[in-house]
Structures are given as structure tokens and as C-alpha cells.
Amino acid sequence: MSVAVTKSSITTPIPKQQLKFRAGICSFDEETKIITPKPIKGLITMIPVKNEDEEEDQNMDEEEEDLKMYNFKWTPTEKSVTPVEDIEYVLLPGENSWQKIDSCTNGRCFVLLFSSGEKQFFWLQDKTDSNKKLNELSDKDEKLILDINKVMSGEY
User: Fold this and answer.
1) What is the pLDDT of residue 12?
2) N or C: which end of the chain has fewer CB within 10 A?
């Protein structure tokens, strides 16, 4: 079980199936292929979608049980001069991927890629160890990416 720390320093347990991490959003220029982090911080929450019939039907077949959809939500954690909308998706196993942008040298940028070709870019907010380059992943980042990819593949 992991623990989330809120601004008020109150700790609350997070169920194993739920992921929360701090990330900002980025804009992407299709023409120049340049990713630009926006200076607003946020929180990504990934929560399993609860099947309404799940409690009623305990005899689900194995295929239905294996389909683990997740709600993906990015929410700004600070106010901005221009309003920033939440970003929400429902993730289907095998239909999405979370990939590091290796060409980014001044931070840790990622793309949430959909099978439809849609892309949403994010940057990780938590600082890495002081002896690492800005684009190098910490052990915590590596574990987070592993967990995110498990969610994307339906293994989490």
C-alpha cells in the first residue's frame, strides 16, 4: 500500500489499483515537433472503472474480469491566469501507451499515446536526485513507469 501526501500534510492510504503522481501538461507543435511544458502543475490520478454490475454478478466470465478499464484524470493543482480544464480519458487495456520522450533534454517528458493516434504530453514534477541530469529517471520514476505500463496493458 502506498501513501499520498496532500497539501495539508494529511496522509491517506491509496488502494493498490490506484495511481497518483504529480505531472504538468505540455503543448506539442505538430509542425516543428517541439514539446513545450506549460508552467502549471497538476496531478494525474488513474482509478479503475468499477463495473456497476460487478457487485450483482459475481460469476463474470474470465474475459470480462480481465478487462480492467481505468479513468485517467489530470487536474491542475494551482490557479492560473487563464483557466485550465481537467483532462479525462477512459483507458482500455492494450489501447494506450505511456512513453518517455528521449529527445527531451531539459526534463522528463512523456506522451500518453492512444491507438487512434491522439497524443497528450506531460512532464514529471518531482525532482530527481541532484547528481542526475534533468532528463534522467530516478528509481521512483522507473517504478512509476512500470506501474503505468501495467495499467495500460491491463496487468495492474
Assistant:
1) 40
2) N
